[in-house]
Amino acid sequence: MDALELLKQDHRKVGKLFSEVAATEDVKKHQQLFEQIRTELETHTHIEETIIYPAFEEHDELKDLTLEAYEEHKQVKTLIREITALSDGSERFDAKLTVLGENVAHHVQEEEIELFPKVRNVFDREQLEQLGDEVEAAKKQFGKAKKRASAR
Ligand SMILES: [Fe+2]
Ligand SMILES: [Fe+2]
Fold first, then answer.
1. How far is the CA of 4 from the centre of ligand 1 (A)?
2. In terms of pTM, does the model score above 0.85?
3. CA distances from 133 to 2, 21, 39, 136 (A)
4. pLDDT per residue over 23-70, tens digit each?
5. How many whole angstroms from 73 Cα to the centroid of ligand 2?
6. What percent of the chain has pLDDT over 70?
7. Cβ distance 105 to 97 under 8 Å?
8. How far away, in angstroms, is 47 Cα from ligand 1 center?
């Protein structure tokens, strides 16, 4: 499958999780949803940073936006670390989760509206399919590695 379509599927999935957060005031549910969001984002950013962005970076037309994307990932990861480190029942949990949602939404917009259309000008269909295959294989690997790590 086309790599950009795969990434967009991930974006939709995370977007739905954040909508679920917004739809309830139940703090326990927020906590559960955050766990899912964290898992999704860890996989997604790993895939982008190890497969997608390195491929983009080789092209001058994509370089600046890709560098910006790495920086936005850093902010997202910092927020995830901060939320994870909060003590149970912290009054700052919801505030940080909201800011995380805003950061992710902004980053997804940049990718889908600015970056991906440029990518389509640089890569042809076949190349994007090929990248998509790599993404799918890497996702499986990453999932297994995470399972192993959590079983330890
Ligand atoms: Fe993305
Ligand atoms: Fe990204």
1. 9
2. yes
3. 8, 32, 21, 5
4. 999 999 999 999 999 999 999 999 999 999 999 999 999 999 999 999
5. 6
6. 100
7. no
8. 9
What is the distance in A from the centroid of ligand 2 to the CA of 107? 6
Residue found under tokens 């909508």 = 19
Give me ligand 2 centre to Cα 99, in Å: 16
Tokens 């997608």, located at residue: 52
Tell me how far apart the alpha carbons of residues 136 and 130 are, in angstroms, rounded to a whole number. Answer: 10
**What is the predicted pLDDT for the residue at 146?**
82
84: CA distance to ligand 1 center in Å?
A: 21
CA distances from 30 to 42, 71, 72 (A): 18, 26, 23
3-state percent breakdown (helix, strand, coil) of the chain, nearest 5: 90, 0, 10
